[in-house]
Write a structure and sequence with these properties.
Layout: E1 2-13, H1 17-28, E2 33-37, E3 50-51, H2 53-59, H3 65-72, E4 74-76, E5 78-83, E6 86-91, E7 105-107, H4 110-122, E8 128-130, E9 133-138, H5 141-146, E10 158-163, E11 169-179, H6 186-191, E12 195-212, E13 219-224, E14 227-233, E15 240-245, H7 260-271, E16 276-293, E17 297-298, E18 301-303, E19 309-310, H8 318-337, H9 349-372, H10 376-393, H11 397-407, E20 421-422, E21 441-444, E22 447-450, H12 451-454, E23 461-465, H13 468-472, H14 475-484, E24 495-500, E25 508-509, H15 514-518, E26 527-531, E27 537-542, H16 547-556
Parallel strand pairs: 1-2, 1-11, 2-8, 5-13, 11-18, 20-27, 23-24, 24-25
Antiparallel strand pairs: 3-7, 4-7, 5-6, 9-10, 10-11, 12-15, 12-16, 13-14, 14-15, 16-19, 17-18, 21-22, 21-25, 23-26, 26-27
């Protein structure tokens, strides 16, 4: 056995989208980490296929990842609901997404998402150690030393045993371990964290293939008393992703290979034989679960993605929630590992992300039940009521905007987090501490850009809002700025920006006042916002007095 007891900062277990997104965050902060995955090669028969606007936003600063995803994906803003011979068009993403650069659902296979993230990491010298399995770990250093497993281990590490593809074993010390290793997470099991929930009784078929007889560029939902059939537009590895529910009387074993002829029979039952399937890339049976980890953390061990929550694909929430888990945890591990934040910052991961996970479990369970239940009342509502009421309901703009912002995950907030704070004179309108920073067009020295793009560099960003003279003429606050706005000393240094209705050298010019209005400010009102590395507001206050901000930064030792 090889012992590698010079401790890593982080051991990432799992090389799927969550683990890769976490690695991308850690790399930005210079963290010493490794990524291991027990599978020699990633299995590309993956169920996730859609990327939400909020996920694209949090990946936008990661070396062109979001841009490549958009280039390779299929933007969808329209849905057709089919009931019998009737097709009901539903236009989506035309309201409620004005403050994002990504006002659409991006259909992109999980395999492509992983490839893009993996290529990004490879270009920065990060290798995912495929075929390397976590066997066990011991966070009890006294027990590890007594057993002789790690006699020279440092006192602040988790001792992990890895097994490589050739059968050799290695002992590794890491300050933190993050389980991104899926529904059957070895990290979760070794940490003793219960995974609570249930399995659904239905069996589904998933396939990437070609289909004739449906309009390209739309998502299609075929509703029937027996369940539902969905077609989603892809670019690769095929034009369409099919998801179909087998009838309740179908006892096909989930592990049995799927034949195109039986998928065609399923599609015929839903579509009235109006759609012809051909040229499958891959096909599989699968079952669904709705389960959540009781805890997202046990000491120095964290869970993210499917290791913490698994659910139906309703609403395209799963992979997106996992990637956002990774981004939330990644910047915190980055700052703490570099000594630029108190270790207690890591205590905010579970209070922020566990409520999001629980909400996703509830939402997807309800949506899944409505779409698949064979109860007579639910079947009637699905096939008779919904197609008639949906077009009418979508005319209610406020309700439609609320629903879209929920599904797109733009409404996620951390207002109750210990690291979210409203200071003196905080605006009554606009986003609160813990909310996502809305995007808006601005100009930087005459160059058209956006607020998010200018705040994409790793680390915290201080956004001073108002006319330049309000800050420049306050000598006391010039001294305060020197305290909270140090010269850059690494990727996590605080970066300052002036957002003003006036063109100012080096500042961000809010040409039509839209950015300030979205923050709840008028052109003549001042305020300041501390923006976290994940794009959420950590602290906000009115006026030019930065003493409250200085206290906030000092309390968390953020630099």
């Amino acid at each position: 056995m090889v012992n590698s007891l010079d401790p890593l900062d982080v051991l990432v277990v799992g090389g799927g989208p969550t683990g890769l997104a976490l690695a991308a965050q850690l790399e930005r902060y210079g963290v010493r980490f490794r990524v291991v995955d027990r599978q020699p090669d990633r299995v590309h028969e993956s169920r996730a296929l859609a990327v939400q606007p909020r996920t694209l936003e949090v990946l936008a600063g990661v070396g062109g990842v979001a841009e490549e995803m958009v280039e390779r994906g299929n933007r969808a803003v329209r849905l057709q609901m089919h009931v019998g011979e009737r097709a009901v068009p539903v236009r989506l993403f035309d309201i409620g997404v004005e403050d994002t650069a990504y006002p659409y659902l991006l259909f992109l296979s999980q395999a492509e998402t992983e490839r893009i993230l993996g290529d990004h990491l490879g270009g920065r010298g990060v290798r995912v150690e495929r075929g390397t399995e976590l066997l066990d770990f011991d966070a009890d250093l006294d027990a590890a030393r007594d057993s002789g497993l790690a006699p020279d281990a440092p006192g602040d590490a988790v001792i992990c045993t890895l097994r490589h593809g050739d059968g050799s074993e290695e002992t590794v010390a890491a300050r933190y371990v993050v389980g991104c290793d899926g529904a059957h997470s070895r990290v979760r099991q070794a940490a003793g964290i219960p995974f609570e929930g249930r399995a659904y009784p239905q069996t589904f078929v998933l396939a990437d293939l070609e289909a004739d007889g449906i309009e390209p560029g739309w998502a299609h939902a075929f509703l029937s008393p027996r369940g539902l059939l969905l077609f989603f537009p892809l670019e690769a590895p095929a034009t369409w992703r099919l998801l179909a529910m087998r009838p309740a009387c179908d006892t096909t074993p989930v592990e049995r290979p799927v034949e195109l002829a039986e998928v065609q029979r399923l599609a015929d039952a839903y579509t009235g034989a109006s759609v012809r399937l051909r040229d499958p890339v891959w096909m599989t049976n699968f079952r669904l679960h709705n389960r959540g980890a009781r805890d997202y953390r046990a000491g120095r061990v964290f869970l993210a993605g499917d290791a913490a929550h698994i659910h139906s694909p309703a609403g395209a929430q799963g992979m997106n929630t996992g990637i956002q888990d990774a981004v939330n945890l990644g910047w915190k591990l980055g700052l703490v590992s570099a000594g630029r934040a108190r270790p207690e910052l890591l205590d905010t991961y579970e209070p922020e992300r566990a409520p999001v996970g629980r909400n996703v479990l509830r939402f997807t369970d309800r949506a899944f039940t409505i779409g698949t239940s064979t109860h007579p009342l639910v079947r009637f509502a699905r096939t008779q009521v919904a197609p008639r009421l949906m077009p009418l309901a979508l005319r209610i703009r406020a309700g439609r905007a609320y629903g879209l912002r929920t599904v797109t995950q733009l409404r996620i907030h951390y207002r109750s987090s210990p690291v979210s704070q409203d200071g003196p004179g905080a605006p009554r309108r606009g986003p609160r501490a813990g909310d996502r920073l809305p995007d808006a067009p601005v100009s930087a020295d005459g160059r058209p850009t956006t607020l998010h793009r200018e705040l994409a560099a790793p680390g915290h960003h201080l956004l001073l809002c108002g006319r330049a003279r309000a800050f420049a003429h306050d000598h006391a606050d010039a001294d305060a700025l020197a305290d909270v706005w140090p010269a850059g000393h690494g990727p996590s240094a605080l970066t300052g920006h002036l957002l003003s209705p006036d063109p100012t050298p080096g500042g961000l010019h809010d040409l039509d006042g839209l950015a300030l209005r979205r923050l709840g400010l008028s052109a003549d009102r001042t305020g300041h916002y501390l923006i976290r590395p994940d794009g959420h507001i950590g602290y906000r206050a009115g006026g030019t007095d930065l003493s409250g901000l200085r206290d906030y930064l000092s309390a968390w030792r953020l630099t």
